[in-house]
Amino acid sequence: MSSNDQFNLKKQRIKEASTARKIIVTILTLIIITIGVASYQAYTYISEGLSPADPNDNEIIEVEIPLGSGVSSIGQLLEEKNIINDARIFKYYIKFKNETGFQAGEYKLSKSMTLDEIIESLKTGKILVDPIFNVTIPEGTTIEQIAEIYGKETSIDEKEFIEKMNDDEYISSLISLYPNLLSENILAEDIRYPLEGYLYPATYPFYEKNPTIEHVVEMMLQETADRILTYRQDMVNQELSVHEAITMASLIEEEAVSEEDRYMIAGVFYNRIEAGMPLQTDPTVLYALGEHKDRVLYKDLEVESPYNTYINRGLPIGPIANFRENAMKAALYPEDHEYYYFVAGYDGEVYYAETNAEHEANIREHRPPQD
């Protein structure tokens, strides 16, 4: 081979090597770009999956997590409700954090919540979204007073609320909805308001600006059910129906201020019932009159009403107000004593007596007539 041929061969090899290097560099570049794009897409996908569905949307979405739901089904449900961006990311994130103990139930969530906030809510059963406003219903309030409170604090019309409380069709639907709490007793002809005493006193959070009457009523009934139905066996032990127990608790709420006196006055009431004596409690007279008065007059005691415990023996036809839980406890676990009378003195103390003579003496000493 001549020197010229050797030169040309060497030149050709150098050219081929250069071409090969360019091809390798091009391939490597393409691989790097592909990996980079894939990594970016993966990062974006995961980042979006971990981020709130909409950080600016605080609208409350109600979600019911069925009993026995697994992580996958919960994630799918939340994705369908647009509360999270991706059910798979939700599932893997939970596994990564080793989270467990999710509770079934109804939740109020929003698109602005982070995954950690959603997980915490599902674990604790607590609502982590701040309410728009709260409404406080004090103990000892009547249906008419509750209507007035909602009329002032919400968009609910007071008169419409009262009308709803006398809507037999609606009340019947509630009896079907809460069969362990409500009975046909509340539909008795002379009952003033079927739900009197059944709307529990508490501070209620609201997550929408214009709640409906139905939402308000059912929220309060559920609170009553949650608080009171745990005492069902105690009611059976006392031979009381739920309606009778709530009625007794409402009387105790209106008569006694201190917790100690609630148990004592409950004992007085049961002693009088057992002895066949009328309860003779003034709050039932005021309820029968349908007005608030600082003093109950003798003529008031004669008002014809199934609520008046001066002219009727036993419990009145129904509750006269709502009540605190300790009033229910007093109704179910009354103090065992021999007292049949009590009077609240002007000094704030309650004085008890076994006989009417002792009772009259307590009245003269601790609650004498005032000019």
UniProtKB/TrEMBL annotation:
InterPro entries on file: MLTG-like
Enzyme class: lyase
Catalytic activity: a peptidoglycan chain = a peptidoglycan chain with N-acetyl-1,6-anhydromuramyl-[peptide] at the reducing end + a peptidoglycan chain with N-acetylglucosamine at the non-reducing end
This protein's record includes keyword Membrane: yes
Membrane topology according to the record: Single-pass membrane protein
The keyword Transcription regulation is annotated on this UniProt entry: no
Pfam families found in the cross-reference section: YceG
CDD domains: MltG_like
GO MF terms held by the record: lytic endotransglycosylase activity
Important for catalytic activity (site feature) positions: 255
Highest taxon listed in the record's lineage: Bacteria
Entry EC no(s): 4.2.2.29
Subcellular location: Cell membrane
Membrane spanning residue stretches: 20-43
Coarse class of the protein's main subcellular location: membrane
Keyword entries, A-Z: Cell membrane, Cell wall biogenesis/degradation, Lyase, Membrane, Transmembrane, Transmembrane helix
GO process annotations (BP): cell wall organization; peptidoglycan biosynthetic process
A cellular component term, taken from the record's GO annotations: plasma membrane
Function per UniProt: Functions as a peptidoglycan terminase that cleaves nascent peptidoglycan strands endolytically to terminate their elongation.
Annotated family: Belongs to the transglycosylase MltG family.
The protein, known as: Endolytic murein transglycosylase
UniProt organism field: Filobacillus milosensis
